[in-house]
Amino acid sequence: LHPWVTKSGEEPLPSEEEHCSVVEVTEEEVKNSVKLIPSWTTVILVKSMLRKRSFGNPFEHQARREERSMSAPGNLLS
Description:
This protein is mostly helical and 78 residues long. The chain has a domain at 37-67. It has four helices and no strands. The longest helix has 13 residues, at 40-52.
């Protein structure tokens, strides 16, 4: 145990008997604990958003990209 956890022993941790208790979990609770498992595409999307630190609507960004024109501004190519 690192000394900073207890302020070098000034504030000891509470005893395990005082603050811990056994929790019994039934098989039914285990079966009902997960309601929805995300698809792999969702997991990949969230990972990408976390990596880029971008929490906006990714589908809105895609729509904006599709709206861009590939022609030069002001019809300079005409």
